[in-house]
Every structure is written in structure tokens, then in C-alpha cells.
Specification:
With 309 residues, this protein is an alpha+beta fold. It has a single domain, classed as 4-Layer Sandwich (Phosphatase 2c, domain 1). It contains seven helices and eleven strands.
Length: 309
Amino acid sequence: MSQPGDPQPTPLPPDPDPWRRITVGVPGIEFEASPPGQYDFDRPDTECDGWSTPELTVRYASVRGAMHRYYRKPRQDTARAALHEATGTVAFAVADGLSSAVNSELGALEACRAALEHTLHLLAAGTEPVDFAAVARHAAERLRQLAKWRLSGRDPQPAEVASRYATTLVTGVVRPCPGGAAIELCRIGDSAAWLLDRSDGRFLPLFGTKTGSDTVLVSNEVTPLPTVPDPVEQVRVRLAPHQALLAGTDGFADPLGDGHGQVGALFTRHLRRPPDPLWLAHVLDFSRETFDDDRTLLVVWPRDPAAPR
């Protein structure tokens, strides 16, 4: 009980509501999200993470899209990242489960897990460059084993695996090196990756795009895991000090387009330096009419030598 003369608590200032959803252009319809199905309780609406090594900084976030929030579907995207401690190499994976597959959210999760596990195994063995065909086969086998378990031990046909767990995958590594970190990555399906020039806001796509200037006809056809293409699409580039590596699902790539519009400007502003992981998730959950897919984005920056350690 306070006594006369005791100092009184300072009243809190009015809440400025800093977490109001960001609008880009014409906003989508606002509504309270519906719960996902009763057995989807371990697929949260939003997840994010972030950390730094002496050379690199990592942030990623994944948010459920408006369509899935409305129709009680789980988030079908996943992102994961891990550090190979002996070399300081960052390994990462981003996956987008196909809506046509009945449990694609599990396919995306297991594909990311399997990709990281095998990549870390190859890094421990000193494999350079990474054998991404082996990584993709390992991820595809994980999906096959998952389908076999669901079928009570019966060996599934490839079409059965795809009908349950089909997913895209972008996976790779960022190795600290003199003269700029070395990036190696591959993709299966239509998820994407870019180098963002933080000095001028240009997004350089590392794979072919659905909407780029070299695209004659836009196609929504996707060949996802468990199919492993031959050859696996791969890229190797250097990460300059003024750049950041982005890997994302088409829920981010489609509104981004060629990066010259409002979405590109929004992310250039917020990715010039690593944001708090929660803030990245907040920005990623922007509202824009017609863009209602799940969105996932993983970003790797070269570490500023002057940054606190």
C-alpha cells in the first residue's frame, strides 16, 4: 500500500500503434484470421528468426497469406537456416508447399530439414562446391519416406508422394571468403533468389523469373519435389559488401515483380541494414489487393566490420 509522499508512477504515454499493418497501394480486405484446422496447431501463422556470425547476418520470416487465414488453411511455406560452425558457412533452405498437395505444409518443412541436414553433412566432409543434386535427392527421399509412413509401410508411387507433399525448394550456402562471401544455391520449382544492391535498390534475380523482360509467356506450371530435375538448376556468385542475398517464395516474388515498384521500394528501405526479426515479419505481412499467398523471405547480409560483436 502506498503512503502519502511516496513517488507516483509515471503514466505511460498513449500507444502510437506502431504495428499497424503496412499498406502498399490498394490494401486487401482486413479481417480477423480464422484458426487453422484443429490438427495444424504446430504450424503457427507467423514465424521468424535472426542471428549473426562474425562475417554474416541472417534474418528470415514466414507469414500465412490472407487466403489461408480466411479459409482455415495452415501456412504452407517454411524457411530454415543453420551455421556450419567449423567453417562459418551459413546453410539455408526456403520451401513453398503446393496448394494442390493435401499436406504440402509438411512437405515444405521436411524438405527444408532434409536439405539442411545433408548440406551440413557435405560441409563437414569438405565437399566444395556443394553437390546440390545429392541434396535434392536426399530431400526427395525424405518426402518418399514420409509418404511411406503415412501409408502404413507401403512403398508409395511418385505420384502419391507428390499428391501429399509436393513442394518447391531453394537451398544453398554462403561461405565467408576474402573479397566477398561465396554464394552457392539451387532451386527446384518456382521459388526465387535475388541480390539486392542496397546502394541503389536494384533486385538482380539469380534465376529466371515469371515476369522478367526475357519472359515471353507467363506460366504457372511448376515441377516441384519429389521430382529431381537433371540437371538441378544452380547458381554461384559473390556477395559484395553493398549487397544482400534474398531467397523467397512466390508469395513475395509475385508482388515484388522486377523490384521497380512500391514493394521493391518498401523492402529496399527496410533491408538496407538487418532489421529486428519481428520487424521483418511485420514488413513481410504488408497488405496489397490480390496478393494473398503465404510469404516467406530469408536474407543474408555481409557483416559490417564496425558492427558490435
